[in-house]
Amino acid sequence: MPKRSSENRRRVETIRLTLGRRGRAGRERDMNALTRPHASAVTTRCVGTGEGGRRCRRVHHPRAAVSTRASSHRTEVAASLGTDDVEHVSRRAALMVAGSLIALTPLSARADDAEDADDPPPPTLTPEEQAALDKVNAAVQRASEDSIKLASPTAPNQYLPIPQGFSLPLPPDPVRFPRAPLDIKLAVLLLRSTYETVDAMDVMAMDTFQINFWKSRQSEWEPYTQQYSPLKIEQGKLTDPLYFDFISYTQFKVVSKEIPRSQSVFEERSGAEGTTKVVRRDATLSDNKVLPAVLAQRLGDTIYARVRYGFEGTDFDAPEPSFDGDVDSAVNGMRKLVNSFVRKGYALKSAVDVVNNGVGDKQRVVTIRLDGPATLWSAQALAARGVTPSNEYLGYTLTGYLRLCGVPSVYSTKVNDTAVELEFVVG
Predict the structure, then answer these.
(1) How far apart are CA 354 and CA 198, in angstroms?
(2) Residue 43: φ, ψ to 5°
(3) Cα(300)–Cα(306) distance, integer angstroms
(4) 24-35 and 91-98 helices cross at what angle (nearest 10)?
(5) What is the rounded distance in angstroms from the CA atom of residue 32 to the CA atom of residue 28?
(6) Domain boundaries, given as residue ranges, for the chain
(7) Distance from C-alpha of 220 to C-alpha of 54, rounded to nearest angstrom
(8) Residues 368, 337 contacting (CB under 8 angstroms)
């Protein structure tokens, strides 16, 4: 058997991590899509060899014909892949080969959305992992139920940063210095939380998101990598800030492009056979103008819940909210939360400065400087395109934390060639 390339091995490992708790059989099918040119079923054929021995070999069978609707969908994917072999192109295989590794299966996929009916049940969680997951789900549900209130322009905590006004849409220069490797669990947490938040809000059909994600990635990947030549950027290596930066940019670019034209009712295909269902968005989110703020709010609350309670057995040592409205206690927690991100490789280093605002005794101005963050290039690229919401993971997370502390907050962001700076006014 030929050896897999290092790139394929890296992408296989990324799939294992990003697909989370899909059953083993489902994960194997997903990973096989990386190395097989065509979608097929696999059986094992054995024959006797005498004296009780048996010789077995694996046999691949092309998939059976699919419905007209699914076939039409595969035609679109095949066109995207630049191949006429429609019969043997499955949606998942196409996305896998395309490198759309994060936007495939949510961590907490619902049973009625399962793509493989024959998948075994998810592996048993430890009591600690199950308790953490239950707490995260409960926190996200509570925050989501109040989204319209929490994301309103008059809410005490503003998740979206204050707009910085007009700026020339200049593409950013490549990052010319080495950055810290990103902890794989933090990378997966951030990207998967974004995908799941978009999915839960029903902003768009997620099969459309996946295809648009791949098309966008494909169109910009070569120009992006050429900036760093002869340095090679491995596809799927989420611990590499160069790759994470690009994939994060692509996620938010695709979502922001869809939000203004988002439909409240749409068809969504799922499963290998392209089963179609009608999706109706929550009526409270029918106005597309509220979607950017709601996305920022839900994403910030989701990320904070996961770093607070733990994610896939990983402890982030994040602060507990004080709930009492004490500004100084909340500011101390902000330092700890920033440090928890930096320890996981989100930036090379950080500095947190606090001064009184001069408006009473309770307000503080907290300036957070992140040198060499993992989103340095993407923050500039999204800003140049006027994208909102952007991938301001830390700003959203800090706002979610401050909200639970009972401390009002607003903030602005600035980015240059080496650092990102967040300036919070709290209290």
Answers:
(1) 34
(2) -130, 165
(3) 10
(4) 60
(5) 6
(6) 6-105, 127-426
(7) 51
(8) no
Q: Where do runs of H (alpha helix) occur along 84-205?
A: 91-98, 127-145, 147-150, 184-201
Place of tokens 């319209």: 148
SS3 170: coil
Per residue of the chain (427 residues), what is the pLDDT tens digit?
444 555 555 555 554 454 444 433 343 333 333 323 333 344 444 444 444 444 544 443 433 333 333 333 343 333 333 333 333 333 443 343 333 444 333 334 333 333 333 445 666 888 999 999 999 999 999 999 999 999 999 999 999 999 876 666 678 999 999 999 999 999 999 999 999 999 999 999 999 999 999 999 999 999 999 999 999 999 999 999 999 999 999 999 999 999 999 999 999 988 777 789 999 999 999 999 999 999 999 999 999 999 999 999 999 999 999 999 999 999 999 999 999 999 999 999 999 999 987 666 789 999 999 999 999 999 999 999 889 999 999 999 999 999 999 999 999 999 999 999 999 999 9
CA distance 408 to 357: 14
57 pairs with which residues across the strands?
Answer: 45
Enumerate residues 6+ apart whose C-beta is below 8 A from 202: 266, 279, 280, 281, 282, 285
Report d(CA 170, CA 385) in Å as an integer: 9
The token pair at 201 is 């809000």
- Residue with structure tokens 């607003």? 410
Give the torsion sign (CA, 135, 329, 297, 174).
negative
Q: What is the model's pTM?
A: 0.75
Q: How far is CA 17 from the centre of its chain?
A: 12
DSSP one-letter string for 246-268? HHHHHHHHHHHHHGGG--SEEEE
Of 252, 248, 256, 254, the residue nearest 191 (C-alpha)? 248
**In contact, 318 and 307? CB cutoff 8 Å:** yes
> Which residue type, as a one-letter code, is found at position 205?
A
Q: Which two tokens stand for residue 74?
A: 């595969």
